[in-house]
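Subject: for your reference before the review

Hello V.,

The reviewers asked for a structural picture of the protein, and I figured it would be easier to keep everything in one thread rather than splitting it across files. Below is the amino acid sequence we used in the manuscript, unchanged from the supplementary table.
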Amino acid sequence: MTKGTSSFGKRHNKTHTMCIRCGRRAYHIQKKRCAQCAYPNAKRRHYNWGEKAIRRHTTGSGRMRHLKLVQRRFRNGFREGTMAKSKKARVAKTTDSTT
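And here is what came back from the structure prediction:
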């Protein structure tokens, strides 16, 4: 039995399938564990020796659906329950003060 070409022809079973958390083809079917993100563990898989890998998956590398709204609210001091004054009212006020 050879270790090379003839053995590679027998590979037709998939060990990994798509992971529902990270989206990569790293979810091991028999182990029921993702090799990329460690799903179904609550904490994501990351190691300090993989500095660039951490950088690729850190905050800000995705959509930030909620956090970008929080950043905008932070810049405005988390104000709530107020309405912006209409531009017409502001223009009218400035013309009255000049005349």
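For the response letter, the relevant points are probably these. The two ends are 99 Å apart (CA to CA). The beta strands are 16-17, 27-28, 33-34.

Happy to draft the paragraph if you're swamped.

O.
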